[in-house]
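Students often ask why we bother encoding 3D structure as a string. The short answer is that it lets us treat folding as translation between two languages. Here is a chain of 384 residues written in the first language.
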Amino acid sequence: MSVSHPDRSDGTNGPVTRPHYRRVYEDIERRILCGDLSFGTQLPLLPALCSEYGVSEAPIRRALDELARAGLIVRQRGRGKGTFVQKRITPPTILRVLLIGFDLSRTVIEAYHEIYGLLDGVRRAASAHGCVVQTVGEDALGSLAPAPEGVRLGYLVLSQTQEKYETGGEIASAHAPCVLFNTPHPLPRRWTVSVNMEEGAFLGTDHLATLGHRRIAYVGKTRGGWFTPRYVGYSRALRTHGLVDDETLVRETSGLSAGEDAAALDSLLALPEPPTAIFACSDYRALHLLNHAQNRLGLSVPGDLSLCGYDDISTCETVSPTLTSVYHPLVEQGEAAVEMLFALLDGAAPPDTMHQVLTPKLRIRKSSAPIGRCFDRTPEPACR
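And here it is in the second language, the structure alphabet:
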């Protein structure tokens, strides 16, 4: 048995850091489910596994215990004793996540944090089904192939553009069942799991307008698969409250540079009628704005300026003031896509479930308040 080194990459952002036992478990699990270790194959003895993985006995024992509980291996005692690959009742399944239009060599996690949330949900659900998850980039489109004999294969596709969704979905679905993430518009004969990002941005902007703000700025991208719906939701909320959709209150930023977002805030505050609130199309932009407003400009948030972000990353609850944000259910989206894909693989997916749409939620915290209300220390408002 040849075992790959436990410090391997998942293809998205460099080496995956996991507990030793988990890395051992996942490596052996992958080899079993891919068919590299067939039914009845005996695993090496404990000392040999320790040597091959470069770890002590404790993580090896724990990994083997979990593999046994998962029904992937069986321990035999007495004559012929040893640890063997267990016979599977159902064929092994591989889920390939196809990422189109993303530079997978980048290390700026905030640029693609959506990928990591989705993959977390995918891996959780896939683990419950006992299947392997493989992540591949756009360069794999030309080499996609049907599943090997005796293996079930399914694709999950995430793209940054509608055109590439159509191309990637067509190519992937020609080889195996396929589910698409976040298509800007439902595609015919394609199964999709999306989040209503327009509604999410509407909730955030509506919240600020309900607090009495009439000059509400938008900071972030206005075009692209992830951002067009957010800008549309922002504009719709303004119209709902009878407010002018003023282009001078819109600042396009990449979200990768704190300085870029700081410059956007400076230019907004230099307007003859500056905004009293800002909806940022991502939390990283909102956090850049918060830091610049408080630490560079000496403004009170929310006393002088209210802020609302989008995504509800964990940092929203650790900054001061805590950041009001729109919760984007990335993990749930990944889990839902896996369940949809397994329904397709099992031939049990009814047509009325082709397009599943999840709803974001507004989480109100301390960074937003009515005009003129200074920052206070009262308990956090309830989320809605």
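Translate back mentally: The radius of gyration is 24 Å. Keep this in mind for the problem set.
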